[in-house]
Amino acid sequence: MDSLRGLNPAQREAAEHVHGPILVVAGAGSGKTRVLTARIAHLIDAHGVPPQRIFAVTFTNKAAGEMKHRVGELLSRDPGGLWIGTFHSLSARLLRREADRLGFSRQFTIYDEDDRLSLIRRIMDERDHPVKLFPPKLIQNLISSAKNRMQTAAELEATGPQDAAVRVAADVYVAMQRALLTANAMDFDDLMLHPLALFRHHPDALERWRGRFDFLLVDEFQDTNRAQYELVKFLGLGHRNVFGVGDEDQSIYGWRGADLRNLRDLQSDFGDARVVKLEENYRSTRPILDAANAVITNNAGRIVKTLRTHRPGGESIIVVAAADERDEAEWIARELGRRVTDGAAHAECAILYRTNAQSRALEEAMRRAGLPYQIVGAISFYDRREVKDVLAYLRLVVNPSDDEAFIRAVAVPRRGIGDMALAMLAEQAREWRVPLLAAAARADTIATLRPNLKTAFTAFAELIAGLRRRAGESAPVVVMEEVVQAIQFETVLAAEGSEGIERWENVRELMAAAAEWSEIVTDEEDPGTPLQRFLAEAALLSAVDTSKGKPDGVTLMTLHTAKGLEWPVVVISGMEEGLFPSSRALELPEGLEEERRLCYVGITRAKDALVLTWARARRRGGELRPGIPSRFLRELPPELIDERRTSFAVGAIGGWTGQRGWSGGREGSGLGRGAGSPYRSMPPPRDGAGVFAPAPHLDAAMENQDAPRLVKGERVRHRRFGSGAVLGLSGVGKELKVSVAFDDPEIGTKQLLVAFAGLEREWESA
Ligand code: ATP
Ligand code: MG
């Protein structure tokens, strides 16, 4: 019974449940994931369920690794054979056993976004669709979202027959699926869709897989998409032992096709699912929970949940105004440094943000402050050029039909094979109906090729054939070493200078990773070779699973990536309109509500301390833009807030200094105007309007960087000269001058140094 130790009665009820569908719906930090983990251990421990008959889905591969480790701890032994992972990785495993039924072979490759995009580009070329008119990325998105909605090409076309882009996408869709089949490859969407096709068309396979697992468990159920839910239905409708945990308020992937209906459908589709509610929050202090609830209440039509915390006291939510993103980052670094001095470990702190682009300023500040940090999810190690090059060779060794791998590998090192030669080869391959590698092996019979190209192609094909003969059951690192030797990759990279040396380091890191590689799941029945399984795993490791920097440092990641995680100290930076909520999300229906759920997710990551920062100006897309506090700040109850501002935010900025919107908010509009927080009195966001100056400390850095941009035509007010309109600007940094035509004819047009002029926006000073 050890595996249930420490659970409260409601949690225990859920974890002890054995047969029939059950849904745990509860707010953040109530122990959903903990219950799911305990239940796996309990099934194995108390009910003797063999681990390989349990199918457990987590949101990232990293989470799967951690959960498996935790189950192992609860059991005091390794739960080997457990099927645990993301939907995609579990599907890939299932497909490795069934690929032949779908016309693929077991050696199939998983195409990542780059592979797919390059394939789409080639198809568009072949079929004379102008890529200038229809960007391949757009076509890819159209196809991918159709796939996620489980639409065929014809169904996609029917959604917009008069839309040229949709017609092109539908045409490319058909050609792409054909090409994927020929290349023995699947993209990420296919990984979810092929099992469904298998089950639909092969009742015997469905029966076998239904009998294969006795228990299905899904964490973060609110973020499953329709195809994933179908898979749960296929696998679970026999025994109905489906256990879902989720929180509607944390559904943040609607833009990627996640469908909240799944949470509700689970209750009806499986017939009277038991519903367990958890109402005790173990993670956060009272002010943090109150803040989270205050924000999420603004979403309409949600089911209100109770969430209690027994953690007494707790510090107020700190809200900080900064001058710009660098000032913001400096302040955060100082604040975290202070907390570390007071005893917090670096790893207990996290800085979250809406977009990856925000990480740069934060990273620089952390470095300057000498604080160790790690960035999670910015760029996947497996996305690096040199890493992909080596993997392309391995892919070709495993799957000789993999045309994208061929195109990549044949170019490294240079073999004198240009685009023309490749096009001729591709042409011939199409005619012969064989993959590029097979065509290359017979290149000497291709009349259009010059003799040196014939030799280059055949030599390459022989190289791969040799590697393939020797690969067999070898460990991935052994094959990798042979590849690197064969193409003299170190020498090739060294010729690129210092950057090449860095790249070589990455290749060595890849080899180290391969040497250390052990599977999350050990599975004796898996028909693949170790190399195949390694490649599948590498392809599925998303950026989210990869971090760079010091693992025991402060964590920097996006709000989306932070789902399910927790830290004692959490900073959410960039709390500004247009950034968070993001203006792009606001264009989507339901966009604002999804952003608000994301805010709820962010706030509830904090255990003890929550800091929210915003900047009055921010460089975005090469421009300095004015910042207005996020509406989510305005939704916080004032009594929870400890308001602060950085020293630069106090004096330096004309447009904001001392005006009512921020510090003066109390008198005119604070509590006096109903439930007003200081932010409630902010003027409504105005598009693009704003006059502001950089904080003085930024001069040096700004000279070579994005110069600030003042808005021409903007109405401003000067303390002495009165009102006027901005005519133009010149200079950068401290020298930035603005020319203003003042209304008073006596004063006329004046050139002023922005940093010292103390200009205010007229609509704020009126
Ligand atoms: P989220 O919605 O953010 O994914 P969750 O509901 O999955 O949250 P968990 O991550 O499982 O919540 O738990 C939150 C924290 O509370 C964890 O640190 C967990 O160890 C702790 N916790 C959960 N249940 C208990 C309990 N009964 N006793 C003590 N601590 C608990
Ligand atoms: Mg969780």
Summarize this entry quickly.
This protein has 32 helices and 25 strands. It is α/β, with parallel strands linked by helices.
Structural summary, described in words:
- With 766 residues, the protein is of the alpha/beta class.
- It is 45% helix and 15% strand.
- It has 32 helices and 25 strands.
- The chain has an eight-stranded mixed beta sheet. Strands 3-2-6-7-1-8 form a six-stranded parallel beta sheet, with helices on both faces.
- α2 crosses α3, α13 runs antiparallel to α26 and α16 packs across α21.
- The chain is globular, with a radius of gyration of 29 Å.
- The site of magnesium ion (MG) has 3 residues, from α2.
- The site of adenosine-5'-triphosphate has 19 residues, from α2.
Question: What is this structure's SSE topology?
Answer:
Layout: H1 9-16, E1 22-26, H2 32-47, E2 54-57, H3 61-75, E3 83-85, H4 87-98, E4 109-111, H5 113-126, H6 136-148, H7 153-159, H8 164-182, E5 185-187, H9 188-201, H10 203-212, E6 215-218, H11 226-236, E7 242-246, H12 261-269, E8 274-278, E9 280-281, H13 286-296, E10 308-309, E11 317-322, H14 325-341, E12 349-353, H15 359-369, E13 373-376, H16 385-398, H17 403-410, H18 419-432, H19 436-441, H20 451-471, H21 476-486, H22 489-494, H23 498-516, H24 530-540, E14 547-549, E15 554-558, E16 567-572, H25 583-586, H26 591-603, E17 606-615, E18 617-620, E19 623-626, H27 631-634, E20 641-645, H28 647-651, H29 665-669, H30 699-703, E21 715-718, E22 722-730, E23 737-742, E24 749-753, H31 754-757, E25 760-761, H32 762-765
Parallel strand pairs: 1-7, 1-8, 2-3, 2-6, 4-5, 6-7, 9-10, 11-17, 11-20, 12-15, 12-16, 13-15, 16-17
Antiparallel strand pairs: 13-14, 18-19, 21-22, 21-25, 22-23, 23-24
Helix pairs in contact: 1-2, 2-3, 4-9, 5-6, 5-8, 6-8, 7-8, 9-10, 9-11, 13-26, 14-15, 16-17, 16-20, 16-21, 16-23, 20-21, 21-23
The chain binds adenosine-5'-triphosphate and magnesium ion (MG).
